[in-house]
């Protein structure tokens, strides 16, 4: 169990950044971030007004918006407004990005993916063709 107050405290210890990510992990390694075999779970925050540029990679994401509001771009489709409670599936190799449209509140997302599975299969790749065994 990871308490919201504990996650917020961990976020406060991070270096200043437009995008903050706290992995729900057992240890600091790709294997340690597997909460369940082959799957990683993290909290991700985009600060107000921040854009996370579109990108694609070999793993899928399942995002659950926890608070805030923004716009999701998925593939070539027009942006879609997202807010608290929305659940977003991003298939592997699908270009995706976010914009936090708020001036005051972070866009907070629970981020689940099969990134550890792809790394262990030596299929940790992005749209530029980079393939490694470690993220």
UniProtKB/TrEMBL annotation:
Domain Cupin type-2: 46-111
Pfam families the UniProt entry points to: Cupin_2
Superkingdom classification of source: Bacteria
Position of the signal peptide: none
InterPro entries: Cupin_2 (IPR013096), RmlC-like_jellyroll (IPR014710), RmlC_Cupin_sf (IPR011051)
Protein name: Cupin type-2 domain-containing protein
């Amino acid at each position: 169990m990871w308490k919201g107050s504990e996650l917020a405290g961990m976020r406060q210890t991070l270096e200043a950044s437009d995008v903050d990510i706290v992995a729900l992990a057992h240890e600091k390694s790709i294997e340690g971030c597997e909460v369940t075999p082959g799957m990683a779970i993290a909290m991700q925050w985009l600060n107000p007004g921040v854009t996370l540029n579109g990108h694609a990679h070999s793993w899928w994401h399942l995002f659950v918006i926890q608070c805030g509001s923004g716009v999701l771009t998925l593939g070539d489709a027009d942006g879609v407004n997202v807010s608290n409670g929305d659940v977003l599936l991003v298939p592997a190799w699908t270009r995706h990005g976010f914009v936090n449209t708020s001036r005051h509140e972070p866009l907070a997302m629970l981020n689940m993916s099969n990134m550890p599975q792809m790394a262990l299969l030596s299929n940790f790749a992005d749209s530029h063709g980079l393939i490694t065994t470690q993220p």
